[in-house]
Amino acid sequence: MNREEFLTRVRNAATAGRAYRVDIDPNLPENVGYVGGGDDLPAKLAAEVTAVGGNALLVDDLAAAREALAALLDRYQPRTALCWRHPLLDRLGLDALFSERGIGKCDYESLAALPADVRRAQMLAADIGITSASFAIAETGSLVMMAQPGQERLASLLPPVHVAIVERAQILPDLFDLFTELRRAGYDNLPSNLAFITGPSKTGDIELTLTTGVHGPGTWHVIVVR
After folding, report:
1. What pLDDT, on a 0 to 100 scale, did the predictor assign at position 25?
2. pLDDT at position 226, please?
3. How many CB atoms lie within 10 A of CB 157?
4. Could you tell me the sign of the dihedral formed by the alpha carbons of 207, 203, 34, 184, in that order?
5. Which residue, 58, 167, 202, 205, has fewest beta-carbon neighbours within 10 Å?
6. E strands, 108-155, in order
7. Cα 68 from chain centroid (whole Å)
8. Are 29 and 165 in contact (CB under 8 A)?
9. 168 pLDDT above the threshold of 90
10. Residue 39 — very low, low, confident or very high, per pLDDT cuts 50/70/90?
11. Per-residue b/e over 94-115, b at no fewer than 16 CB within 10 Å?
C-alpha cells in the first residue's frame, strides 16, 4: 500500500466515524458528573490511594510526616534518593534525614552540572524517589505531576519505590476542580508534561495477568498531611 492509498483509507474511516457522534444535551447542568471528595479531603484521598493499590498514611502535621518518612527510609534503606525540589520537602528537612542515614541525594542542583551520561547513570541507580505533587485528587486518589526544573517526572518513574508527601492545600475534591485550577493558571503557563499517577505501575498486557512495577515503581507510598 502506498502513502496516498493509506491516507485515503484514514480519511474514509474518519468520515465514517463522524456518523456516530455523541450529542450533548444543552440543558445539562455544568457540574453533571461531579462527584466531589466529601467533607474530609485528606481522609478521602488516603482511602482512595489505598483502594488503587497504594500505601497511604494520614498524619496530622509535618512532624508526624517527617517521622513517617524516616520510618520508610529505615525500612527500605536506600543508598541514594532521587528527589524533587519543593517547599514542602524543604520544611520536612530532607537533608538532615538523609545525612543521619548516609543516604546520597540526587536532585536538580546536584545533577544539573554533571555530564549527560553520568547524570543518567545516577538517576537510574536511585533506590527511592521522593516527591510532592502539583495537586492531588481526592475523588480518585490521583497525584497530578506538572514537570518543571527541580520537579522532574523521572523522580516518580525511575526508582522502584516512590514516596509522595502532600498536604491539605494541594488536595482538590474532584477531577473537574483540577481543570478549573488549570484555567485559572492560564494554559499558556502549563508545562510540557502533565501526568496523573493513580496507584503503582501496573500492566495486564502479558496473558491478561496483572503485573505490578513493570513500567515504573512497584511500591507507591503517599503521606497525606492534614
Report:
1. 76
2. 95
3. 18
4. negative
5. 205
6. 128-131, 135-137, 142-146
7. 19
8. no
9. yes
10. very high
11. beebbeeeebebbbeeebeeee
